[in-house]
Amino acid sequence: MKSGVLNLVLKRLGIAVITLLIVMFAVFFATSMLPGDTASILLGQAATPEAVAGLREAMHLNDPAILRFLLWLVGLLHGDLGTSYANEMPVATLIGGRLVNTMKLAGITTLLSVPLALTLGITAAMLRGSVYDRTVTILSIGVISVPEFMVATLAVLLFAVYLKWLPALSSVNEAHSLTDLVRIYAMPVITLTFVISAQMIRMTRAAVIETLSTPYVEMALLKGASRSRMVLRHALPNALGPIVNAVALSLSYLVGGVIIVETIFNYPGIAKLMVDAVATRDLPLIQSCAMIFCLGYLFLITAADIVAILSNPRLR
Amino acid sequence: MTIARATTSRRSFLGHSYSLVGVVAALVILAWTLVAILAPYVIPHSIGDIVDDDYFGPMRQGLWLGSDYLGRDMLSRVLMGARYTVGISLAAVSIACFSGVVLGMIAAVTGGWLDTCLSRFLDAMNSIPSKLFGLVVVAAVGSSIPVLILTLAVIYIPGAYRFARALAVNINTMDFITVARVRGESTVYLIGSEILPNIIRPVLADFGLRFVFIVLLLSGLSFLGLGLQPPLADWGALVRENIGGLPFAAPAVIVPSLAIASLTISVNLLIDNLPQKIRDRDA
After folding, report:
1. What membrane topology does the annotation report for this chain (chain A) (predicted)?
2. CB A194 within 8 A of CB A149
3. pLDDT tens-digit readout, A99-131
4. How many A×B Cβ pairs under 8 Å?
5. Which residues of B touch A141 (CB under 8 A)?
6. Residue A277: which domain range?
7. pLDDT one-digit tens code per residue, A210-226
């Protein structure tokens, strides 16, 4: 039966690769649909027709789209992300430091939100129907039902305006001490943690409740196991797969959340870079940022699916 | 009186019983729908008129929700914003659900390579994060109401397709479908008269959830300045343009946020409180 699991995982990875190709294709063509000739936009109004033609030749703009797509793919594989239109710097240089900033933000958020959400989700499931459970459920539905920017706005109102604990904007360059660092990351991380945790709490709670309603848990109850032993020893090990699946899926919401959070708090990460690139229509930069986000997203949802396959005892 | 009674017992209507929360949520949704339809006739000031000497003015008589960053009447702008937020989202969700459900039913009934190709392709579409998709499209073709509606619709077609296909595949194995096939009925008849009536209720609940996603995404895009362009403003754009009032907790930035929250939370609560018979997947 071992090979069955292996086959399923390989199949899922194959689907991920095909999906990646389709996604790359979509990103490339969406960005090349841009109206107007890139060469004449770059050279400005004073450009001679010869200069425009020369640049078009140099940028392979006369080649068919499919060839340009392949050239772009080959470039990507060699780590060549192209040159930014707006300031003529290599895209890789522009992205480098920004990517590290975004990863830091995402990493800190993950470290905070996973333990928090799992604790709340599992305890809410254990105390199903209690006031505590209902409070947690209502709060998480509330956070899920409002846009991310509103969570951010409320966090600013509460912590920066009324309590005056934290500054409303972050600026990574001014970090000199640990307290500075905490103050800078606090607002973006709090906002993201709310958004991610709400999803995770709901999914974790659902996964544990489903396990608690299985016959073997009922059996444990009947033989007189205590409530905590029933949950921790009997239910949790079996709910682990669905929970890890929920964690990976919820983390994929980071991709959307980070776009809003970096913009609202003026955080110098890759999402802010991309939103600015959209404003200046800087294509190579948009393409590369979009690819990074799609890769991260695809990685997380594929991981979630694979965990779900591996944790299904019927396939083992 | 009706509401007072509803707290003690679930009220019965059209053969279903509804909980109080569901009724309140439905009323909020109804109110916003009416506002969206009637906004141009009830706004006290034109949305472009500067009526206050001060910017980010507080709530007071005449300017019930204060003034925005240019001293314009916030009440009028929020009422007109409902028109854009609700209108665009409703148009987008209708297109998304119609296309998704029709494609899903066709895939389930036809099966074979059509089903495989369609499912693979739409799954791939589903693995592009929605905000990112919106960003790239807006970067490519610019932002206008038709572009926004189409983009939002395209983003949510895969989800609607997946949901409808899963339901239709179950119905497709029923005997009455086999009988209809043997009778020699066409695909159009099969999906229209045999499958659709059996999946319509969960599909409608899904329609509501997808409406919430679209409202949130539209607000998010507008908040980033990539949705509706000035002078038009939906609720997300209203929050964006008045974000400068945040340090003073101006009503101009709080009210549009509350408007979005009231609409999306109401739709979620309404669906959560629908009678089991309507909500259930396998109804």
Report:
1. Multi-pass membrane protein
2. no
3. 888 888 888 899 999 999 989 988 888 888 888
4. 135
5. 265, 268-269, 272
6. 91-311
7. 888 888 888 888 888 88
A147 vs B218: CA distance, rounded Å: 9
With both helix axes pointing from N to C terminus, report the angle between A270-280 and A253-264 in degrees, rounded to the nearest 10: 70
Closest CB to A293 among B123, B132, B243: B132
User: Per the structure, how many domains does chain A have?
Assistant: 1
Chain B residues closer than 8 Å to A286 by CB: 135-136, 139
Instruction: Please judge whether A161 and B249 are an interchain contact, meaning their C-beta atoms are less than 8 angstroms apart.
Output: yes
Assigned domain for A276 exists: yes
- Return residues 34-63 of A near B (CB < 8 Å): 34-35
Instruction: Indicate which CATH number applies to the domain containing A174.
Output: 1.10.3720.10
C-alpha to C-alpha distance for B103 and B115, rounded to whole angstroms: 9
The reply to whether residue B246 touches residue A286, judged by beta carbons under 8 angstroms, is: no
B57 dihedral zone (left: phi>0; alpha: psi -120 to 50; beta): beta
Tell me what ipTM this predicted complex has: 0.74
**Single-letter residue type at B198:** N
When pLDDT is cut at 50, 70 and 90, the band that residue A44 belongs to is low
Q: How far is CA A28 from the centre of its chain?
A: 20
Q: A287 in a domain, yes or no?
A: yes
Ordered structural domains, chain B, with CATH: 14-277 (1.10.3720.10)
Nearest residue of chain B to residue A139 (CA atoms) = B265
Q: Is the Cβ of A206 closer than 8 Å to some Cβ of chain B?
A: no
Burial of B186 (0-12, 13-18, 19+ CB in 10 A): exposed
* Burial tier of A165 (Cβ tally within 10 Å: 0-12, 13-18, 19+): exposed
Nearest-CA distance A220 → chain B (Å): 30
Residue A7: inside a domain, yes or no? no
Please list, in sequence order, all residues whose beta carbon lies within 8 angstroms of the beta carbon of residue A272, skipping any fewer than 6 positions away.
A98, A262, A263, A266
Looking at residues B91-95, what average pLDDT do you find?
A: 94
- Residue B226: its chain A contacts at CB < 8 A? 275, 278
* Selected residue of B223, B272, B273 to mutate for chain A interface (largest A Cβ count, 10 A): B223
Closest to B211 measured CA to CA, from B261, B156, B262: B156
A33: nearest CA partner in chain B: B140
User: What's the number of CA atoms in the CB half-sphere (13 Å) around residue A239?
Assistant: 29
